[in-house]
Write a structure and sequence with these properties.
Helix content: 25-40%
Radius of gyration: 26 Å
CATH topology of the largest domain: Chitinase A, domain 3
Order of helices and strands: HHHHEEEEHEHEE
Number of strands: 7
Number of domains: 2
Strand content: 15-25%
Shape: elongated
Length: 254
């Protein structure tokens, strides 16, 4: 779920447009017929055009095609440019700064919204039949109770799991990959570490992890900021702990 780095996106956009400048011709917005792509150059022109357009869509900016075409024509016809190199560099820096600030503001607003939705959901969810609420804010529901041992924080565990957001979006699943995953229990998000220590081997639980026990305000590439995470987890096996390292296992996997 979850953003992109503004600098890299803007760099890509500039590179694409720089390449595109040697190939593009003025675009007629009302054309409805598919262009005839008769050779490799035609195909390359169309490919670059599609990528330039997608990049503008990604940064939510509608290009002025008249100005874009004029700039391309000026370069190809060796005309005097309307802006100096310094002015163009300043324009890029200003645009990039504004874009980064807008993205940061949007993410902060999303974090506040997600935190409020998570609190509301947990308040309602803890009153439902079968849901157990722990002091930390973690909640779980037993779907199948096993009769095996419970893991310690320092154990390695083998599990099958599926993770979803509040809106039902699935962001990760060991079931989809066709095999369970094994990891040190103290190398995952806090909600997993806490919940699985209560689970006997052979159990299948539904786990509701509040943002502060998941990825918090930062989120990650697939997890929005302050997102509440829901998991269905099967605890299959406890394995002897191996030598510890500094690597944190990502659940969801990266």
């Amino acid at each position: 779920m979850f953003g992109f780095k503004c600098k890299s996106v803007f760099t890509v956009m500039c590179l694409l447009i720089s390449s595109f400048v040697f190939l593009i011709s003025p675009i007629r917005s009302q054309d409805t017929e598919k262009p005839k792509l008769e050779n490799d150059v035609d195909k390359l022109c169309y490919t670059l055009g599609v990528n330039v357009a997608k990049t503008f869509q990604m940064i939510n900016v509608k290009p002025n095609m008249e100005i874009l075409s004029k700039a391309i024509g000026d370069v190809l016809e060796n005309k005097e440019l309307a802006m100096t190199e310094e002015e163009m560099q300043n324009c890029i820096r200003t645009f990039q700064q504004n874009l980064m600030e807008a993205q940061m503001k949007k993410r902060e607003e999303e974090a506040v919204k997600n935190e409020e939705e998570a609190k509301k959901f947990l308040e309602e969810n803890k009153t439902k039949e079968g849901v157990v609420a722990l002091p930390s804010g973690l909640q779980y529901k037993v779907l199948k109770e096993g009769n095996g041992p419970k893991p310690k924080e320092t154990d390695n565990v083998t599990v099958h799991y599926k993770g979803t957001l509040l809106d039902g979006t699935k962001f990760d699943s060991s079931y989809d990959r066709g095999e369970p995953v094994t990891f040190p229990l103290n190398r995952v998000i806090k909600g997993w570490t806490e919940a699985l220590q209560h689970m006997p081997v052979g159990s299948k639980w539904q786990i509701f992890i509040p943002p502060n026990l998941a990825y918090g305000k930062e989120g990650n590439q697939r997890i929005p900021p302050n997102a509440l995470l829901q998991f269905e987890v099967e605890l299959l096996e406890i394995k002897p702990a191996e030598q510890e390292n500094d690597n944190t296992v990502q659940i969801p996997s990266q």
